[in-house]
Amino acid sequence: MDFSLTAEQTALVESVTKLAEREFGERAFTRTEFAWDSLGVLARNDLTGLTLPVELGGQGASLLDAVLVMMAITKVCPHSADALQASNFGAIRQVANFGSDFVKSEVLPRFLAGEALVTAGMSEPEAGSALTDLRTSARFEGDYVVLNGQKCWNSHGPDATHSVVWCRFGPSSRDIGAVLVPFDSPGFSRGKREYHMSGESHCQLFFDECKVPKDYVLADSDALKKMLSVFGVERMGNASRALALAQKAYDMAVEHASVRTQFGKNLCEFQGLQWKFAEMRVELDAAEMLLLRAVAKADAGTPDSTEAAIAKLHANRTAFAVANDAMQVFGASGYSQEFPLEYIVRRTRGWMIAGGSVEILKNTIAQSIFGRRFDQRAGAVTR
């Protein structure tokens, strides 16, 4: 098995890195809101919809190409990488895979052009990991669908123009569907802008008799079965960003340990730190191999949700551990907000929750190990 990049892939990484340094480098690690300008740059350079079919306005590239681009941009500017995630790995894939002809021809092109931004509306105050507990309802009314409920913890909610809203068309879990809701729809409103520990913002989304043309319905039943198939790719985007930021922290720490002098010698000459760096390198390499395995399966046409879960789990845990160790190597300067390391620590911690928490990922892996489903609900009996 050859893990080396092709000449074309190497050239892709080099060109994207140069683009990111030129266009995003100056404001890297200083942003607080969604990078609309970066999204425009990505669109103009054909870096949106990388893996989507050409007939849908995408680039028809491989998932590996998209992962390589994601890692290259993340190392330079993680906020610009958020724009790449939103236009390649996130809810946009649900729109592209399950949208009506109207949505694919009239709405999707706006996302790909960097003119609009779609977020996923899944979590609710009483339904996070337990997605089947969601309460947001939807009903058909003539040529429209009417939604009632609320969503929380959505990425880029204060800045987005649309959301793929997961909702109930009936009482059963099989009645769960999804609707693409434009934020100028009557009956829609947003709560105040709030902030995560990493500095990224979110807000609540409210639907009060929110009326949307039925052409915006992505699924009115079996949405879990239909759409969860695209979540593996989203998780690989998450894993790619986590791994890339960890690599950034590691590289910074290596450079620092090579030149920083204490007690008359460089930090890298202390055996305790040598072992720390060796452990970081092993975990980073292992995370990369697991990610590449999952990506290779997906590119071969046999995506494996368990391998995607394994890749995200290890990348998330490794990223936080490596970033934290790198900050320790820097000492007080690593803890200062004047340098990127403390942000990297905060950001990598969030990815252990977003896009499938590490606990949910472990459940997925365990189900694969035992070949059976385990119901986590109180009092449930599984067979």
From TrEMBL:
Cofactor(s) for this UniProt protein: FAD
Keyword annotations: FAD, Flavoprotein, Oxidoreductase
Domain Acyl-CoA dehydrogenase/oxidase C-terminal stretches: 227-369
Annotated ranges, domain Acyl-CoA oxidase/dehydrogenase middle: 120-210
Top-level taxon of origin: Bacteria
Keyword Flavoprotein found: yes
Pfam families from the UniProt entry: Acyl-CoA_dh_1, Acyl-CoA_dh_M, Acyl-CoA_dh_N
InterPro entries assigned: Acyl-CoA_Oxase/DH_mid-dom, Acyl-CoA_Oxase/DH_mid-dom_sf, AcylCo_DH-like_C, AcylCo_DH/oxidase_C, AcylCoA_DH/ox_N, AcylCoA_DH/ox_N_sf, AcylCoA_DH/oxidase_NM_dom_sf
PANTHER family: ACYL-COA DEHYDROGENASE, ISOVALERYL-COA DEHYDROGENASE, MITOCHONDRIAL-RELATED
Name used for this protein in its record: Acyl-CoA dehydrogenase
Organism annotation: Nocardia callitridis
